[in-house]
Design a protein that fits this description.
Order of helices and strands: HHEEHEEEHEHEHHEHEHEHEHE
CATH class of the largest domain: Alpha Beta
Strand content: 15-25%
Distance between the termini: 53 Å
Strand order of the largest sheet: 6-11-10-9-8-7
Radius of gyration: 23 Å
Structural class: alpha/beta
Helix content: 40-55%
CATH superfamily of the largest domain: Aldolase class I
Number of domains: 2
Number of helices: 11
């Protein structure tokens, strides 16, 4: 791992999830569901079953079930499959038993959380599987849905990926705009990077993004131990790995897809960051079917 010592656990994300659920219930006016209030007897009870409609990796089942508890603490919920497990069309994921109007009012919000999180976990698992024969690790980025970062990154770790910085405070990452704005493109790059390394708190890791081999050489000479290769070609990545020779961790970033990730891993890089895991994920198809008790 680069910036985190341990993978995110469900306990890490619950405070963020609870706030998001509260906002979602308010946004959807779940307690003022005009259709359900009109058509459903408030005393009618039933059972809802969350079911996968396609193959994937489950993530967020506990978050989804918390939605129903937020509406009615007495409703019964039971996960049938744990986060991180594979699911297939027809897999039963969880059971919700209680008043039907509660299940209906929480249905869309619960599915929104579960489908997005499972979609991220599923896509991540595809990247991880694609490079399973190589040493490189798949990591996420900060390209997350605003407010959902902990949930998005938990989903990545659930799918077998690793987490990059959680926030700007988690590490020092000198990127292209920093280099441009403070003049680091000059021949004095090595000296300036040495100062950054000496100024940096010992608790924070320092990573530098490089765009060419000259910057790479100067970063190495300064003693930088994590180097990001910015949008380099496969041949450039391979050349960079040979130059570094194990003196620093190398991260490949920019333009990584499922189609080319294996070729990127073959270059010998240590880390492959993929923004698409969270900014372009496809929701996993999941349904909630409800039956009324006789």
């Amino acid at each position: 791992m680069i910036y985190r010592e341990n993978p995110l656990e469900i306990s890490d994300i619950l405070p963020y999830a609870n706030r998001l659920i509260d906002m979602a219930l308010e946004e959807d006016e779940s307690f003022n569901d005009a259709t359900t209030n009109l058509l459903v007897n408030p005393n009618s009870t039933g059972t809802g079953i969350l079911t996968a409609k396609e193959e994937g990796i489950l993530a967020g089942v506990g978050i989804a079930l918390t939605v129903f508890h937020k509406i009615d603490q007495d409703i019964y919920v039971e996960p049938l499959i744990e986060d991180g497990c594979p699911v297939y069309p027809g897999s039963k994921l969880a059971v919700i038993k209680g008043k039907i109007h509660v299940i209906l009012k929480g249905e869309r919000i619960a599915l929104n959380f579960l489908q997005r999180m499972s979609g991220i976990a599923t896509l991540t698992s595809k990247y991880v599987k694609a490079i399973s024969s190589y040493k490189a690790q798949i990591v996420d980025t900060r390209k997350t849905l605003p407010g959902y970062r902990y949930l998005d990154k938990y989903s990545v770790s659930t799918g077998g990926g690793e987490n990059h910085r959680m926030s700007l405070a988690d590490g020092i990452l000198v990127k292209d705009n920093h280099i441009e704005l403070i003049g680091l493109k000059s021949e004095a790059l090595k000296g300036k990077l040495e100062k950054i390394l000496s100024w940096a708190p010992t608790s924070l890791k320092v990573e530098v993004e490089v765009a060419d081999m000259m910057q790479l050489h100067q970063a190495l000479a300064a003693g930088v131990r994590i180097i990001m290769l910015d949008n380099m070609t496969i041949d450039e990545m391979r050349h960079a790995v040979s130059i570094v020779g194990g003196r620093a961790l190398i991260e490949a970033s920019g333009g990584i897809t499922l189609e080319n990730v294996k070729r990127v891993a073959e270059t010998g890089v240590d880390i492959i960051s993929v923004g698409a895991l969270t900014h372009s994920t496809k929701a996993l198809d999941i349904s909630l079917d409800i039956k009324r008790n006789c």
